Amino acid sequence: MDKIASFTIDHIRLQPGVYVSRRDTIGSEVITTFDLRMTSPNEEPVMNTAEVHTIEHLGATFLRNHPAYKDKTVYFGPMGCRTGFYLLLAGAYTSRDILPLVTQMYEFIRDFKGQVPGADPKDCGNYLDMNLGMANYLAKRYLEEVLYDIREERLVYPA
């Protein structure tokens, strides 16, 4: 069986960043998958499910309401390894193209206060598994340590 593309990335050298994971063509539409890597794989602790779940709810809400990207957003959700998130957008984009969007989204998550959208038993299958304080903290950390002054090597997967 062939190894899937995401398993060919060197996770020992991979650092937090914004990476194009793949581009797929479906019909005439290009879908770009981004790897929003928030923690260093196999070096730092992974994120707990409660904060990952909170970031997922807030990020999806932000993207689905964004004036320019709401109709281009295909998916936003966590990686199984809990070191980051996948963002799928309709269109052929580079990592640099979406930095303003990703930065705005993480600022929204960092600054969010109050009831997490969709954190209600009618709206979510695990609505109690939320941690807004940690989601705010992790968004702030990603902004300050990665996004605000991102280096070129944090935009392209390590060779």
Report a brief summary of the structure.
The protein is an alpha+beta fold. The protein has helices at 49-65, 95-111, 132-147, and strands at residues 17-26, 29-37, 73-78, 84-90. Helix 1 (49-65) crosses helix 2 (95-111), helix 1 crosses helix 3 and helix 2 runs antiparallel to helix 3.
Polypeptide structure, described:
This protein is α+β, with helices and mostly antiparallel strands. The protein is built from three helices and four strands, in the order ββαββαα. It has a four-stranded antiparallel sheet with strand order 1-2-4-3, covered by helices on one side. Helix 1 (49-65) crosses helix 3 (132-147). The two termini are 23 Å apart. The relative contact order is 0.21.
Salient structural properties:
159 residues, alpha+beta, four-stranded antiparallel beta sheet, 3 helices
